Amino acid sequence: MECTIKWVDGMTFMAETGTGHLLTMDGAPEAGGRNLAPRPMELMLAGAGGCTAFDVVLILKRSRQDVSDCSVKLEAERAETDPKVFTRIRFHYTVTGHNLKPETVERAIHLSAEKYCSASIMLAKTAEITHEWTIVEAV
């Protein structure tokens, strides 16, 4: 896996992933940025959310669950001093489907957290991570 970061101007940077996708990052105005794009740490949080959501949906589908939607809200706290690593991250999943088995949803989230989601497992080295979930019956 690879990624190239190029400085655009001010505190705006463009990332090109190894698969050829472009992503813009920018800094806060107080740091010289113009707030035109997400901050790098926001992208790390989004990456962890995307990683685990992917896992959960895949595990539920493979478990023959009729899942129709999945969202993950992440709330993070960072250290007060440098390096301002994540110290706490709360993952709240909302999983929608027909007749979803709570124990299967719980198992999918647990497997993602403990075995498959490289991003959240890596972040757990510095952050206390909690997982909560809500199951919504699809209409």
Describe this structure in words.
With 139 residues, the chain is of the alpha+beta class. The chain has two domains: 1-38, N-terminal domain of TfIIb; 40-137, K homology (KH) domain (GMP Synthetase, Chain A, domain 3, 2-Layer Sandwich), CATH 3.30.300. It contains three helices and six strands, in the order βββαββααβ. It has a three-stranded antiparallel sheet, with no helix packed on it. The protein has a three-stranded mixed sheet with strand order 4-5-6, covered by helices on one side. Helix 1 (40-62) crosses helix 2 (102-116).
Short description:
This protein has 139 residues and is α+β, with helices and mostly antiparallel strands. It is built from three helices and six strands.
Oligomer: single chain
CATH architecture of the largest domain: 2-Layer Sandwich
CATH superfamily of the largest domain: K homology (KH) domain
Assign a percent range to the helix content: 25-40%
Q: Spans of 5+ residues with little confidence (pLDDT < 50)? A: none
Element pattern in H and E: EEEHEEHHE
Distance between the termini: 41 Å
What is the CA-atom radius of gyration, in angstroms? 17 Å
From the structure above, extract its key features.
GMP Synthetase, Chain A, domain 3, 3 helices, 139 residues, three-stranded mixed beta sheet, N-terminal domain of TfIIb, 2 domains, single chain, alpha+beta
